[in-house]
Design goal:
single chain, D-Maltodextrin-Binding Protein, domain 2, 11 helices, ten-stranded mixed sheet
Length: about 325
């Protein structure tokens, strides 16, 4: 073989194993790491999308909860996994937009160390209170907070709801006492039990508790009142100029084969287009995403650029 032919053959030889792996994929169950504790929004979304996705792929999607450190522990695990498409993470605003600025020694790069595959959903946050011991409105919350700093729970340090608590404190003129938990489920349990009077939570994980009367919804972080909860005012209606939403998507380790990326992206979009999946999203207040893998990668990059300065300017610290 001439030198020129040998040089041309090298890329083909190197790509052959990758192409072979892509053709056989998935050859085993897919591990979907949720970097929060069971019972929260990430867990809910992972199971809602994971079950029909597994049916379409012919292999089960097994949800594995790996909470801790602002969703960074589970994310780091996936960043270091083999890029064969069998280990994925439910990437989110905490793990890939907020925590990179919050944790100075983070052991992954939110862009370089991942293959971002698809946006799953966008959701507003909601301020909820214990219906017996918590305030009955944002006005009452502000009045109580002026007298004595109030405690407010979140799903953990580095979450979007942690940052919402920081911003609320700034707007109220006094810092709220942030009480971080290892996931939204444990935090909600503490609020329902009266151990903490308030919580900032993503709407999907709080929706059923609001409907059942376990907690009282005081305000939404959405631009306008949410159609699923028209009686709940926005923070702006309460005089607090704060609008934000959390997001959740699907990502894998860097250097995944293009064919696997395209397959996952296409199958996720098909799942999100299903009527029953859209109905469930609407029921708990989420909006299904519609982004290709390339679009989602660009979205994550934009969110990282947006939230970094906010974290640094807020002075927020890991708890």
């Amino acid at each position: 073989m001439t030198t020129r032919r040998a040089a041309l053959a090298i890329p083909a030889l190197l790509s052959a194993p990758q192409a072979a792996r892509a053709q056989r994929w998935p050859s085993q169950p897919i591990r979907l790491v949720v970097p929060f504790a069971p019972g929260g929004t990430t867990d809910l979304i992972a199971r809602l999308v994971g079950t029909p996705l597994g049916e379409r792929l012919g292999q089960p999607v097994i949800v594995e909860n790996r909470p801790g450190a602002g969703a960074t522990l589970g994310s780091q695990l996936v960043a270091q996994a083999a890029p064969d498409g069998h280990t994925l993470v439910l990437s989110n605003i905490a793990s890939h937009a907020i925590s990179p600025a919050l944790y100075p020694n983070l052991r992954y790069d939110a862009l370089r160390d991942f293959t971002h595959l698809a946006l799953l959903t966008l959701n507003p946050s909601v301020v909820v209170a214990n219906p017996r011991s918590g305030p009955g409105s944002m006005a009452e919350l502000a009045a109580r907070h002026r007298e004595r700093a109030l405690d407010m729970a979140s799903s953990g340090a580095g979450s979007s709801n942690h940052l919402l608590i920081v911003r609320l404190g700034q707007l109220l003129g006094r810092e709220l006492n942030h009480v971080p938990f290892r996931g939204a489920g444990p935090a909600m349990t503490a609020v329902i039990g009266g151990q903490v009077p308030l919580m900032s939570d993503s709407l999907p994980s709080a929706a059923s508790h609001i409907r059942q009367g376990n907690v009282r919804a005081l305000a939404m972080s959405s631009e306008e009142r949410h159609p699923a909860f028209p009686d709940v005012p926005t923070l702006r209606e309460g005089g607090l100029d704060l609008v934000t939403s959390s997001w959740f998507g699907l990502s894998g380790p860097a250097r995944m084969a293009d064919a696997i990326v395209e397959r996952i992206s296409a199958e996720v979009l098909a799942v999100l287009a299903q009527g029953d999946v859209q109905a469930r999203f609407a029921e708990f207040g989420g909006t299904a995403g519609r982004m290709s893998a390339r679009e989602y990668a660009g979205f994550v990059a934009a969110e990282l650029a947006r939230w970094g300065p906010v974290v640094r300017e807020s002075g927020a610290q890991p708890d």
